# Entry
Amino acid sequence: FHFDLIIRNGTVVNASDETQCDIGVRNGVVTCLGKNLPVPEGCKVIDAEGGWITPGGVDSHVHIGQNQGNAQSADDWTTGTRGAIAGGTTTVVAFAVQVRGEKVMPAVEAYYDLADGKTHCDYSFHAIISDPTDEVVDKELAELVKFGVTSVKVYMTYADMALNDRQMLDILAGSRRHGLTTMVHAENHDIIEWMAERLLKQGMSEPMHHGTSRPQLVEDEATQRALALAEVIDAPMLLVHVSAKEATRAIRKAQTRGLPIYGETCPHYALLTAEKMQAPGFLGAKCVCSPPLRSDPSDKAGIWEGLANGTFTVLSSDHAPFNFFDETGKKYGLIENTTKNPAGNFRAIPNGIPGINTRSPLLWSYGVLEGRISRQRFVELNSSNAAKLYGMYPKKGTIQPGSDADFVIWRSDASRKSTIIKQENMHHGVDYTPYEDMEVKDWPRLVILRGEVVYDGESNQIMNQPGGGEFIKRRLSSLPGPRGTSRAWINDFQPHKI
Ligand code: DUC
Ligand code: ZN
Ligand code: ZN
Ligand code: ZN
# Structure
């Protein structure tokens, strides 16, 4: 019982169940769950005050230090991860981008160098593959796995990144061979380009027409096509940032048939609508993201249904921080005004909205505390499933002996403290939050990373220094792979049999 930290008087909430017990921690790792653990001399004791203790949040889709065209990321690794811990996230997985014509591994190393020694929480990367050459598919995917990067993201839209169907098959086959998970941004590139050109010609260039150019059908078609491609290869695929009910249902259908298909959505699709893009003047640019926010209330209902019924594997923030009051951020859409319209040009607005600082409190409040999902489901969506899918479980994503001592302590139902979300209280580096003035019914009271209190919610203070976070070398997914196979499927792909 050589604990150096004991958390008492709380209820430990895991994805499987919850228990009133103490947590014994030594050297940043949980060593014991039990009643009335003996307190050795010099051991620190934290009183959970009857609250709920959930595993530290895992935000498995964030963009940090990643520029988009001419737009500069408003978060570096220090500010981005500061925002993470202030919202109960203790692990983030961000992106490293392969530039077309270049290799993948040097890109991963360059992004790693941006983060190394500068983070407030633990971190890892997915590699974005924009150029799946034979070299990438045959060699670099294996090198990625060796480095601890066991997932890739591919895009079906954006001129500089979009893959065609054949390239998608190449990546899926390679990922299957090497055991990676493929994340897909599913939107039909040609429809978007065709629509956007016509909108601009007619002078419809305001931020809201970002949404007009990307109707649901754009996401729906690409999602179904991606699912078909995944089925051809029978390879695990996660559809990222699903925004609406049709794509949710397509994923559900594939899952019901037993395909290794996973889904991700984000708080903004569950809580915000397209009206946000119609804010006066150019303000709507703050809520330009892709896929866009949807206007039909049934879409939000469909997203909550998918969150509750298990269609969505993970809830990520898709934190994509571009300042509003900054010519290298959202305002670039005003400056780069090809149509000379004072409302700007939606095509030049960087896509993406901030969310790293608010993801878990929004899900806890609007999900659990408003009765839409159970606490167990919260833990799955917020931590456990991402840890499993991305090869970090049970180090991350659960509270059990051997796990990292990453916890969020919430207040008990009787002592909840509601908070109005305000930019001035955010710790991220970006200059606005799309959730300004929204109320949440509670906020993390304490956030603990590997046994260290890193955020104090009573005073809204960050308690650790940059460099407190560690790189996580990830293993392969522990969620199901191709049907009717075990791990032996890796290296055993026989394309002539399909
Ligand atoms: N895709 C993302 O994953 N994030 C931000 C914008 C986008 O298109
Ligand atoms: Zn190989
Ligand atoms: Zn995307
Ligand atoms: Zn993203």
Remarks:
- The chain has a mean pLDDT of 95.
- The two ends are 56 Å apart (CA to CA).
- The CA atoms of residues 71 and 328 lie 5 Å apart.
